[in-house]
Amino acid sequence: ALPWPRLVSAAKDLDSAKMPAGPFASTVGVGRAEPQWAELNRVGGQPGKDGVHAAGDKTEGPLDLGETVMSGDLGTAPKKVDLLIVGAGLSGAVLAERCSKELGLTSLVIDKRDHIGGNCYDYIDEHGIRASKYGAHLFHTKFERVWEYVQNFSEWIPFDHRVRGMVPDADGAKQLVPIPPTQETVNALRLDVASGPISSEEGMQAWYDRQR
């Protein structure tokens, strides 16, 4: 998960830091961040906190919900609650927590799966490796209050990724290029042979316009 608010806040403190002049301009190569911006992505520790781990549970295994909860027998559920929440994924979990803490409401959360967390559920496999049951997830937000909130429940690891794909060039030979297409992509694949290599932001915008 990439803590964008923290990066933005840190960036504001860099008096001499300037964003590159265009989306493809960089002193260290096309598609690479300027050094002062790349430094902000450096993993220097995990923001956030794991309340369960801090309380003494060091197993790193799935949260034990107990036989009563896992039985699925609603006869064991509370007879009276303020809210019935269907789904124990992120939305259901946040609703239950917020309504409990801010409004003092009680909730009954039900889910057809045998675990909480929805598609973000992870667990320790037979080899002792933490695995995401439904695939890895990235978390994005532009709201500082959201980032502050989620750090109360888990540790987060900054993550930066670039997408590249094998795409045939004008001669049919496959090239490893940035996706979606950038100036580097168009020039490497020679997609605009008639006009020649693209050398400016304006030229790249013109290429985009011709493809629409």
UniProtKB/TrEMBL annotation:
<feature type="region of interest" description="Disordered">
    <location>
        <begin position="44"/>
        <end position="63"/>
    </location>
</feature>
<protein>
    <recommendedName>
        <fullName>UDP-galactopyranose mutase</fullName>
    </recommendedName>
</protein>
<feature type="compositionally biased region" description="Basic and acidic residues">
    <location>
        <begin position="50"/>
        <end position="61"/>
    </location>
</feature>
<dbReference type="Pfam" id="PF13450">
    <property type="entry name" value="NAD_binding_8"/>
</dbReference>
<dbReference type="GO" id="GO:0008767">
    <property type="term" value="F:UDP-galactopyranose mutase activity"/>
</dbReference>
<dbReference type="GO" id="GO:0050660">
    <property type="term" value="F:flavin adenine dinucleotide binding"/>
</dbReference>
